[in-house]
Structure prediction request, 162 residues.
Amino acid sequence: MKYYGLSEDDATRAVTDYREYFVPHGMFENEVYDGIPEMLADLKASGRRLIVATSKPEKFAIQILEHFGLLSYFDRVYGATMDSSRSKKGDIIAYALGNEKISPDEALMIGDRHHDIDGAHENGLAAVGVLYGYGDREEHEAAGAEFIVATVEELGKLLEKV
Prediction:
């Protein structure tokens, strides 16, 4: 509605149409970035708690991670609800922090769009903007990301330090 000027009815219909395609096909039309499985394995082996906070519906996020062989690296996956009662990134992050009893100073949000950075800041978290996703440097800078990395390798090196 915000970006395309849709009415509420049109937006509801668009979400329904999107999900009709997304469920059987779209959610698997992704690729895992080179180095991600190795980085996740290293983080997990070092004792880090890895939690997903995504605006995708939670049940789809779990299916996607499972499909790409990444689910076992994460302690928990938190996502949007199907009824949109929890859909904003900040609300999802708050829900994850509360359920996991994590203090904001003990966590770091990593994301590729300003929504990730905004949601982190709403909850008192520092944020890393990654440039190998959809967002660009200007978007992350405008959102106030504390860190910006261009590659998975750079992210891994940053996470070794924080």
Notes: Residues 8-22 form the longest helix (15 residues).
